[in-house]
Specification:
The complex is a heterodimer of chains A (222) and B (190). In chain A, strand 2 and strand 3 form a beta hairpin. Chain A has helices spanning 11-22, 28-40, 42-63, 71-83, 93-102, 106-128, 141-146, 160-169, 193-204, 218-221; strands at residues 149-154, 173-176, 184-187, 209-214. By secondary structure, chain A is α+β, with helices and mostly antiparallel strands. Chain A has ten helices and four strands; from the N terminus they run H-H-H-H-H-H-H-E-H-E-E-H-E-H. Chain A is flat, with a radius of gyration of 24 Å. The longest helix of chain A has 23 residues, at 106-128. With 190 residues, chain B is mainly alpha-helical. Chain B contains eleven helices and no strands. Chain B has helices at residues 3-6, 10-18, 22-44, 47-64, 74-96, 100-105, 113-116, 122-131, 135-146, 151-158, 162-182. Classes of the chains: A alpha+beta (222), B mainly alpha (190). Chains A and B meet through helix 1, helix 3, helix 4, helix 5 and helix 6 of A and helix 1, helix 2, helix 3, helix 4 and helix 8 of B.
């Protein structure tokens, strides 16, 4: 590469850069230096494997720390002390979501609430930072009104990551819900009825899905 | 419910917090609390201290949201607040005298990671060696490996120059290599 500046750095310096190469934050000359090293030195790949092991064990040590189960409740109390008691629910959608969930039977409410919050978070995180990929976020309400969809109930023990990964991989997205009975509206991709049926069947076959009810099909949308 | 409204980014959330929306600060809490909590536990060695400090971090975000200029990631901003509060709490504890929990969490220098790692497999030995690093080294390792932070972000969180981040990482990894070697797991460097 003609524009590539030759970097001659000592191993100590390159070893110090490996964690940042692994976490994907290295750039510029530092990145080139590590890439050159990895390409030219057989020991570099072994060093990278060692750094990977460090990363895995460091992550495991951190993940082993379990935040307290009542952390949010404690924070809410602290927030009330700080800002005073909450007034009427604001117009934001989370307040509306919580109000709706409050009307559910207790067991279903907690399971659905947990899942709904997880999905909202997942969509917010992955939808908000598109370069990471993830769940497609629906467009305007007008757009949504024309999109084919299915009504889906997820199992109480469904994992956010599984749902998010599946929806993302198949171009689907949560666009509404949950209703009072825990039903989510999921936009289904596809220009034809056959494609819609295929994706709906795929949704129904997932282990984290309790029930699927077909909604608007592509042919019905026009 | 509009999915578009739910897809607010961290920065949008902070803007909403600045307008006094409690739902936004709760969402910020749900999104970042676990990592902030773990970050504080790793620095203080105390879960009870970390509970209070993590809460304080988000209350501080509630108070300071209007001053957030968006020059860094929200998560970096939160970790910076957490770092400051953890250091302050540790300083107070030192002044007031330490409690049993904190005392129990302080590594026993006489029982070095090398010795206790002798009979462990390499992964377990490595984890113990990471835990046994000096705090100024371990925090850099945690921020890079677990929190996925760049050199510049770690410099911001710890309020140190970027060159110092690299130097600390070098020494941290050197210490790990030496500790592992002493435990019978020579990895060729240093």
């Amino acid at each position: 590469m003609s524009g590539k500046k030759k970097t001659m750095r000592g191993r100590d310096e390159l070893e110090a850069l490996l964690p940042f190469y692994l976490n994907g934050t290295l750039s510029g000359e530092d990145l080139l230096a590590v890439e050159d090293w990895l390409a030219a030195d057989a020991e570099a790949m072994a060093a990278l494997a060692e750094a990977e092991m460090e990363a895995a064990e460091t992550s495991a040590a951190n993940e082993a720390i379990r935040p307290p189960a009542d952390a949010l409740a404690r924070f809410n109390r602290a927030l009330e002390r700080e800002a005073g008691p909450a007034g009427a629910a604001s117009g934001n959608p989370f307040a509306a979501l919580w109000q709706r969930l409050a009307g559910l039977p207790a067991g279903l409410a907690w399971a659905t609430a947990a899942l709904a919050v997880a999905l909202v978070l997942y969509q917010a995180v992955y939808g908000g930072f598109g370069e990471r990929g993830g769940v497609e976020i629906a467009g305007t309400e007008q757009d949504e009104a024309k999109r084919p969809f299915a009504l889906v109930v997820f199992k109480a023990d469904a994992r956010m990551a599984d749902i998010g990964a599946f929806l993302s991989a198949n171009g689907a997205a949560i666009v509404g819900g949950p209703t009072a009975t825990g039903v989510f509206r999921v936009a289904i991709p596809g220009e034809t009825g056959a494609e819609y049926d295929r994706v709906v069947a795929l949704v129904a076959a997932q282990p984290f899905v309790e029930q699927v009810t077909p909604g608007r099909r592509p042919a019905d949308a026009n | 419910m509009s999915a578009g409204a739910d897809s607010a980014s961290d920065r949008e959330l902070v803007a909403r917090v600045a307008r006094g929306e409690r739902a936004a600060v709760r969402l910020l809490f749900m999104r970042h609390h676990a990592r902030v909590y773990r970050f504080v536990v790793r620095q203080t060695g105390s879960e009870s201290m970390a509970e209070d400090i993590a809460n304080e971090v988000f209350l501080e975000a509630w108070r300071q949201a209007a001053r957030f200029e968006g020059r860094s990631e929200v998560s970096t901003w939160l970790l910076g607040i957490a770092r400051y509060k953890a250091l302050s709490a540790r300083r107070r504890r030192r002044e007031e005298g330490i409690d049993d929990e904190t005392a129990a969490a302080i590594p026993d220098d006489a029982d070095s990671p090398e010795v206790t790692a002798m009979k462990e497999d390499k992964g377990a030995a490595l984890r113990r060696c990471v835990d046994g690093l000096a705090e100024e080294h371990r925090v850099v390792v945690d921020l890079a490996y677990y929190h996925g932070r760049a050199v510049s972000e770690i410099a911001e969180i710890l309020s140190i120059p970027e060159a110092t981040v690299k130097t600390r990482m070098f020494y941290a990894r050197k210490k790990l290599g030496e500790a592992l070697k002493a435990a019978g797991h020579d990895r060729g460097w240093p």
